[in-house]
Amino acid sequence: MELAQTLSQRQTMQMAGQMLHSLAILGMSSQDLSEHLTEQATSNPFLTYRAPPAFIARGGEDFDAVAAVAAHKPSLMAHVIDQIEMAFAENTDRLLALRFAEALEPSGWLGQTVESIALAAGVNMSRAETVLAVLQGFDPTGLFARDLSDCLILQAREADILTWEVETLIRNIPLIAENRLADLAELCDCDVTDIPDILKQIRHLNPKPGLAFDHQPTPVFPPDLIAVRGAEGWTVELNRATSPTITVREDRFADGTADAKARAERRKALAEARALAQALERRGDTLLRTAAVLVARQSAFLDKGPAHLVPLTLEDVASELGLHASTISRAVSGRMIQTQTRALPLRAFFSRAVSTQGGGEAVSRDSALDFVQRTVGGEDPQNPLSDDAIVSLAERAGLRIARRTVAKYRSTLGLASSYERRRAAAAR
Fold first, then answer.
1. CB 213 within 8 A of CB 73
2. What is the pLDDT of residues 185-195, one digit of tens each?
3. Backbone dihedral angles phi then psi of residue 413, each to the nearest 5 degrees
4. 299, 261 contact by CB (below 8 A)
5. Which residue ranges traverse the bilayer (predicted)?
6. The domain boundary residue, chosen from 334, 351, 368
7. Which of 124, 147, 149, 301: CA 20 to 30 A from 326?
8. Do residues 176 and 199 lie in contact, with contact meaning Cβ atoms separated by under 8 Å?
9. Residue 343 domain-assigned?
């Protein structure tokens, strides 16, 4: 057996610790970043940290952002948005859910009717009720109730105490304030002496679950970005109110004033301070560039609503910016952008493409959903459109979608088949 020694060349890639740190900072929320920078400034003599103006406005120059976040209750809006992000995969439903969230009163009840919310969102009542049913399953139970009775019924149902008598009493609870116990007993089909026992079952329920949350008018963490509509289109900028500032103090000590170990430690701390400053600058640059692409690609969505979303994925944005899709995912995760009407999550700007017939131009899923909903909503109830007819109408409108796609989206929207819609119209 003969042994031979050869040389070969191989190329490998390894992510440096500094790059990993930079990516970690990119993915941090404003709260996490402030906590991280506070810790770094405490341990590194070459760093000075200044809290964002939004934090200082809440507590003066010496405001401790980390302590304030720990001391304050979470806001009701932040609490429900976190649950909305997990509960709704589709952009259309998520944006409708955000409309409901914007209508919440401090009590946790809706401050607007479901009809007005559906009208503002451009959806039918069936879809609005479906989304509301999911929202009313959020924690704590009772959020998104239409009124006091709705709130108590939701909680009684969860507590498994919603008997016929309990529900009747809750729905007629104003009679108690009017001291009309005899009328209430008649409605509940019981004796007046039974009313206190029924009331006892609901006394532990919370009529205003939203009051458990912070309702400060100025949030501790406003959106990271701001989009403004001008004469020449949309422009995007970082929200300086949420942007922390660090200053690197250069080493002004002579090397001869300390021993070799101390000099090495000082150089290491200074290098870490400079790397942190660069990572913070890259974070802002990546956020701004990502948001600029999203707003430019989805300007019609901002102007006209979800029906005008075009297909856009993480990979599309990453390709345009010359970055990896995972970097874009970190940049948009949990980020909000303030527009002239409301704040939106950056995730709302993405939409999957629908497979089209005959290799036609791709359209976003939200556009196809909106078309199906509007078409069925505007049909003659006595002569409802079949799925094939909807496909034909879509093709005339420049939207080439398959019949199975129409059937799938009709089901997603809670719309019955043309046969069932015809039967329902005849029954009316």
1. yes
2. 888 888 888 88
3. -80, 0
4. no
5. none
6. 351
7. 301
8. yes
9. yes
